[in-house]
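Two entries, shown back to back:
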Amino acid sequence: MSNQVYHIPALLSDAIEGLNIRNNGIYIDATFGGGGHSRAILRELAADGHLYGFDQDIDVLANVPDDERFTFVHSNFRYITNFLRYYGVDHADGILADLGVSFHHFDSAERGFSFRADAPLDMRMNRSAGKSAADVLAEADRRELIRILGLYGDLRRPAPIADAIIRARDAGRLDTTGQLLEAVAGCISPKQEKKELAQIFQALRIEVNGEMSALEDFLKATLTALRPGGRLAVITYHSLEDRMVKNFMKTGKTDGELEKDFFGRVQTPWKMITRNPITPSAEEVEANPRSRSAKLRVAELLGPEE
């Protein structure tokens, strides 16, 4: 691995404070990555505390701490309940998820996450499973491409970009980031070039990794993975992610559908700890510009009588 920084965790102190860590508790870092959040959690744990770190990218093994209180799980965080059962854990005291992409993925050209270098269009977090970005571009029809680009990329005019991709692939498969850039060049505003290219690559990454369905599965799993009184802290970077997390923490459902009792009181399994999301300070954004869109939300699981 190169000498580049693997990742700088966003909102580190706020996330750790939000977990309200018990030093003998059991915690889950659902998105281990560079291990920054995990190391901060371990500093708060006593000898009888334990932390489970989940990540589907095998590259993170280089960051795993040599600590008896830590167990690394090579898996997508959507499967946390399966692995807790495997390790004989009834409930965790806190779960943290940072949904941002590690610097490592953007800075490792061969992974295909960035438009700044010509590389294979891969974008898979788990390179041993699933379709690559090149596969998605080769197989998706026009309607599906418009949906991916519009929904996941927040692009205002996804149709011309989808049409350009179809024309290019009809002339030959789109296998590299450079080929994709060449294909969409005529549809990109010169004044918004970097922003729109970032949106296209973001959309493909979300689709390739099934990020929204994985997030939904993960959130639902926290209802059984946490003990009553346990904390869930989630850092988002995309409006769709943040909306899903906000809905879930307010209502217990990712679509935000409210359930009320006979007296009209909203029924929710969560107590909101953060009424509004916590965002990085100006000082943090200056030190780590990639943290600028981060939003932290924290909720506490209520007991059956609450």
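entry 2 starts here
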Amino acid sequence: MKKISVIIPVYQVEKYIAATIKSVLEQTYTNFELIIVDDGSTDKSREICQQFTDPRIKIIFQENRGVAAARNTGIRNAQGEYLALLDADDLWLPEKLAKHVAHLETSPSVGVSFCRSAFIDEQGKPLGIYQISKLQDITPLDLICRTPIGNGSVPVMRREVFEDIKFSDNLYGVVENFYFDDDRQLHPSEDVECWLRIALKTKWKIEGVPEALTLYRVNPSGHSAQLLKKLNSWKRMLEKVHVYAPDLMDQLEDIAMAYQYRHLARRAVTLKLGSTAVQFMQQALSAHPRILQEELRRTLMTLAAAYSLWLLPRSLYHEIESLALKVTGANQKRNILQEQSALQ
């Protein structure tokens, strides 16, 4: 039974961290260590983490350096053959680790195993919608446009993957190995840069399992809500990737920007920012008009949502949105169940 190192970066998450830790301790796969990296929290996060007495838990404290630095600290201290990432406000279903171990054990060419996510609100209530991702034959184009690894709480990775992408630097007074890029301007797009580095510079495949094993918390105060910051970090990420894949980025940069603008438009819709959503969709179509051909349904749905939010009375929009979410969630759940049945 191979050991898994679960790594949770913690910063100012006193509302959520206890439930997150419990979701790890309730895993059916029990041979793991839980490495909690407190990244300079000033709230009660540290005290809450210290209340857990499970011997598999190790808590590391460091000055605030950001989520990438906290993950790197966790990776450096990890003892497991597999490493799993979990953000401090998300949750796992009990069979999460077991499913990924089974996937990796039967797929020796796969270095990164990920799952889909079900969305929950700030209180942990299911929203009835899912993150539906492509699962196989994932290319750099997929990663840069659609990001199948939809958040930092879904991947379970072989240790060898991190060994293949590590680099050394002296950022904090001593030479250390780095895995995620510690550049603070890169946050929150450091995940995608890491996945692209794996896809472009190693032999490992990235592949998913169909189940929604992660509960992703839609948190309006979280980093995903900071739209301008996310846009700037995305541009920074493209600059980074251009250094080691210039030919590819020359081909894909406009496409990558268009899909990111569309993603930000969807986030703006979620945040009820109608004019902002419309502006992002206009930028998406300007950057790469063929996005309409490549993903007609999804692009038209985002356009419709943006303009409806912007133009319609709020009460009418809420009625339409509620109906659309119910239909979408039901279709997504049916598709997930069908894919699970096909693989059994």
